[in-house]
Design goal:
mainly alpha; elongated; Helix Hairpins
Length: 220
């Protein structure tokens, strides 16, 4: 499904790398968030459509199963009346209905898998969007500071003339800044990992609460 492929591309996007490579990081981040929001809306719509189709398929399956049982009942009635030919015809109808029910059962299984895939993609995209929103301001500010520092350094060198000592100081400043940027990226990556782990723990807690609720209601 093309929609899932587009979502997967957004989920795999590395925000730090995109900022480093972009000519206009601020514009790029805003566009990325907008793309995620649009895709999120499309995925939600597709999930609703897919679930609706799943329910229709399940209804068709149940209808054919009920029809198969009804034809068996009619066959039994025909046998009790000594009308074997009619009973055979009813059994044949029952077999056809049973086969149709099995076909719909396979379609229901495929549709259920598709629903789960879409729901998984939806959850991942929601997390990715939340992560992008929380990191965007930090990354934009980081880029602006680096750009301002670069302009200030260039302006100072042009105004005063660059001596070997000033060249060394400028090089050392760039190295220090690069190290600071690397540390900031490492911290952002750690934050993202912590958030993902927290999200997993939250889902696990919700699963446990749901299991306890079902147990109390005798639905486990």
């Amino acid at each position: 499904m093309a929609l899932l492929e587009r979502v997967a591309t957004l989920i795999r996007a590395n925000l730090n790398d995109l900022v480093d490579k972009a000519e206009d990081p601020e514009k790029m981040i805003k566009q990325l968030i907008l793309d995620m929001q649009n895709q999120l809306l499309q995925v939600k719509t597709q999930v609703a459509i897919t679930i609706a189709d799943q329910h229709l398929l399940m209804k068709k399956q149940q209808e054919h199963e009920a029809a198969a049982e009804e034809w068996v009942r009619k066959a039994e009635l025909a046998v009790t009346k000594g009308q074997d030919d009619l009973a055979r015809a009813a059994l044949e109808r029952s077999m056809v209905a049973r086969q149709s029910a099995e076909n719909f059962n396979e379609q229901v299984a495929d549709q259920t898998a598709q629903v789960e895939n879409l729901k998984t993609a939806l959850r991942k995209l929601e997390l990715k969007l939340a992560d992008a929103r929380s990191k965007s301001d930090v990354l934009i500010a980081q880029h602006r500071r680096a750009r301002a520092l670069s302009r200030a350094t260039d302006a100072g060198a042009a105004a005063c003339g660059e001596t070997p000592a000033s060249a060394f100081d400028r090089a050392r400043s760039k190295v220090s800044h690069a190290e600071a940027v690397s540390r900031a990226k490492a911290e952002l990556t750690a934050d993202t990992m912590d958030e993902r782990l927290a999200a997993l723990e939250k889902e696990d807690q919700i699963d446990k609460l749901l299991a306890e609720l079902k147990a109390r209601k005798g639905l486990s």
